[in-house]
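Shape matters. Shown next:

___
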Amino acid sequence: MDTDQYLEVFLEESREHLQAVNDSILQLEKQPEDLNLVNEIFRSAHTLKGMAATMGYEDIASLTHKMENVLDMIRNHKLNVSTTIIDVIFLAIDALEDMVGSIQAGNDGKKDVSELVHRLDQIENGKQDVQIERLATAEEVNTVQTDMLGLDEFQVTIVEQAKDQGFSPYQITVELTEECILKGARAYMVFEALEDHGEIIHTNPSVEEIEEGNFGQSFLMIFLSTVAPEMVKDIISKVSEVKDVEMESLTTTVSEEQQEEPILEEKLDAQTAAEEVAATTEKSAPAVVNHASKTIRVNLEKIDNLLNLFEEVVIDRSRLEVIAEGMENQELTDTVEHISRVSSDMQSLILAMRMVPIDQVFNRFPRMIRGLAKDLGKHIDLEIIGADTELDRTVIDEIGDPLVHLIRNSVDHGIELPEVRKQAGKSEEGKLTLRAFHSGNHVFIEIEDDGAGINHEKVKKKAIENGIITTAEADMLTKDEIANLILSSGFSTADKVSDISGRGVGLDVVKNKIESLGGQIAIESQPGRGSIFSIQLPLTLSIISTLLVNVQKEIYAIPLSSIIETVILEKDQMMFAHGKKVMDFRGKVVPLVSLATVFEVPSQKEDESKEYSVVIVKKGEKLTGLIVDSFIGQQEVVLKSLGNYLKDVFAISGATILGNGEVALIIDPNELMPK
């Protein structure tokens, strides 16, 4: 079978299943008695094994199979969850991620996993040299002795309680014809036929052996149903290449103590079993789909192309609005207004298609924190808030590394060692909070720790030594402004370099990355109580709302997300401080910047006006007034790059094409803020 066409789907689904296993294992370590988690992990590992085997990646299938065996023992109460088991499973996940990454890079995905397989074998056999917690023997816990096809006491309990709820348990033996070649596919069709009539709770041989076709011409199952046995037999007999069906009612004897035990939710979903069996066949049997899928996978490149095409529609929409205004034709005006409304809805939908939960970035951090805490000898509780907050996929792809750097710094140099925290009257366990939330057209991400905080005096002294600020300037800075100095290029207060990362080392790179995404980063810190790194990011990078302004005969666009207010300033209200123009804005002195001066716009006529048009913009707590000639109005524009030849133009983030066909430059207000 040619598997190349399925490679992209395999890679994507493999990453999803590995992440699901990763997340559930972390939860299992905290809730070792939660068998629902074990079942979820087992299902993901089982599906991954089946996909890998079908695609021919034997190393992945082999390692995942060994993981399955250990998980199966846990869910059957033959093995208790321990830190040792969790550690080995995490090593296995790392190896699987490496192999999937190798396949994505165009390699064969092979890796020597013999040592890991050996360690998992040791856990399974109870022979590894480190202590493994095991449950008492069956006799010690007074389990039922039964010959029921190898059913354990939990499956027996399921049968008993199902009978109390009106279900009849059947032992069914299905025999296939001698001519049947794709036995796994026929088994799939039997499972599929029974799907709507009950639940299969056990098979002999095991499901995985049936998947691989490793059985003779017959297989056996325990089936719970409210349907009469004759009807069940008739349903199975209608499947092609089924030679014979034998059925008998099942009876069990369970003690009163065991009847009081809770049901273990270990039922085999018939549809899931059928799908997994089919995954390892040549797919010659037609699939029966009972529920229409509500989601489809679309390549991101296609959505990008769709957005690029729609950007052209936005430009033409603006052009049509200008034409309609000039022609004064009511029918044309009404049609253009309708197109504007519809295209606005389309725009929202297309942008929503690009929006993905920030959980795709956050989900890597619990595992990372666990590893760092273990390496550093610290106890850290990670709380994630707002993981369902959505952000543009382009931003999601770029924000991961800066967040990793900030979190590693908080863990390494923010949160203290347990004994140090205890001496300071704190809990030995440090708290790290990662939160995301929407506010206006922005997403905010905050990394908060309850650690030692930033030593402001040390930062100030180091900044003066490095020539970043003067002593006079340092005395005028607030504590938060001092804390933000650690974002300066090359700044570090670390007494020694650690392999985790020193607070301040490379944070200028983090700042530059965030600002390249149109975002901002700010720091608040209280010595002894902790720090908050706050990142502000735009929801999307392509279509933005702006205020168009005139500067002489040129038109500029200022992002609305940066604007606080527009004001008309009388000339006699303008003031000067240190030789620079300023204004009083709600009791606060705000510096003024003339766009005509900054961009050296040629003057067309003498300015005889007695007032200035001013746009008040913000960056964090800083305000600046941008002097323009007049306001044109609000308009959504498509942000286009200026290209490689015009990179890094001061205070310009890009350009857009207006409705009249003219090009307007889009201003980056952050660059115009006073330093």
Notes: The chain has a mean pLDDT of 79. The radius of gyration is 33 Å.
